[in-house]
User: Which sequence fits this backbone?
C-alpha cells in the first residue's frame, strides 16, 4: 500500500512568507517567536506548536486547526516510516 508522504508544514510557511514578501524577522515578530526558532521551524527541525498555529491564524494564514492537522499528518507519516524499515 502506497502511503502519502507529507512535507513538513514549515515548507508551506516558508512559501507563504515569500509570497507575502515578509522577512524572517518580520514573520518571527508577527508570530511572537524568536527568529532562530522560526528558522528551525522553516527547516522542519521543530514542530508547529498550538501557540504557533494560533499565531498563524491571527495573521490570516489559514486556521489553527489546519496547521495542527498538517503537523499531525507529518508526524504520523514519519512515525510510520520508522516501522516500515
Assistant:
Amino acid at each position: 500500500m502506497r502511503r502519502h508522504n507529507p512535507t513538513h508544514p514549515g515548507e508551506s510557511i516558508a512559501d507563504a512568507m515569500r509570497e507575502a514578501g515578509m522577512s524572517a524577522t518580520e514573520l518571527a515578530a508577527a508570530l511572537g517567536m524568536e527568529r532562530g526558532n522560526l528558522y528551525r521551524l522553516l527547516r522542519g527541525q521543530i514542530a508547529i506548536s498550538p501557540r504557533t498555529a494560533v499565531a498563524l491564524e491571527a495573521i490570516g494564514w489559514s486556521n489553527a486547526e489546519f496547521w495542527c492537522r498538517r503537523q499531525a499528518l507529518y508526524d504520523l507519516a514519519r512515525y510510520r516510516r520508522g516501522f516500515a524499515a
Remarks:
- DSSP finds five helices and no strands in the chain.
- The longest helix spans residues 64-84.
